[in-house]
Design goal:
It is built from 3 helices and 12 strands. By secondary structure, it is α+β, with helices and mostly antiparallel strands. Strands 2, 4, 6, 7, 9, 10 and 12 form a 7-stranded mixed beta sheet that branches. β6 and β7 form a beta hairpin. The relative contact order is 0.26.
Length: 183
């Protein structure tokens, strides 16, 4: 018997790696994120952020929960993205109201009523109004995907940031002043 003792640890490590890859949940291959991830606006601006997903083959329904600082931005509404609307089939999307003051959570439940859909794409649009100076995290507090068999998948989730900056002062210029510059 001609065994190479230095090869045994490498074979064992290879088997452990293969088992870890096979045992790792496929859910972490899918990522849900806020896009753009970093946004700067001024007070009074209306901001629409996209909640996007990477590839997901069988999506029957999902729930999104994002937190924010209500002293800096105010949620105006949540609408369905192209993951739901792009199929042309019936779907349901519902913004869950935040009954506890101050309203600091954007919560959205959605499901396909006819068949299922797939990613990648936009899951939802979050619309905010900037109300005060500061920075707020659009904090991912939970994402739950369900497939056609109602099997749960918990994808990885990435938060975003909104910076509300002071307006830049602009000096009024008359047409006569502009003409003198370019003569």
């Amino acid at each position: 018997m001609n065994r190479n003792p230095s090869r045994a640890p490498r074979v064992f490590l290879g088997l452990l790696t293969a088992l870890a890859v096979l045992a790792a949940p496929a859910s972490r291959a899918t990522v849900v994120s806020v896009s753009p991830a970093d946004t700067s606006v001024t007070i009074g601006d209306v901001i629409t952020l996209r909640v996007v997903t990477t590839a997901f083959p069988d999506l029957k329904g999902y729930q999104l929960v994002f937190g924010f600082a209500p002293t800096i931005v105010q949620l105006q509404g949540i609408t369905a993205g192209d993951v739901l609307t792009g199929t042309g089939r019936a779907y349901s999307g519902y913004q869950v109201p935040d009954y506890v003051a101050p309203a600091d959570t954007a919560w959205y439940d959605a499901a396909m009523l006819d068949g299922s859909t797939a990613g990648p794409g936009v899951l939802a649009y979050l619309t905010f109004t900037a109300t005060a100076l500061g920075t707020t995290l659009i904090d991912c507090r939970g994402v739950d995907f369900r497939d056609s068999q109602n099997a749960q998948t918990l994808p990885a989730c990435e938060s975003g940031v909104v910076h509300v900056l002071p307006a830049t002062a602009v000096r009024a210029t008359s047409w006569g002043q502009v003409k003198t510059i370019y003569r």
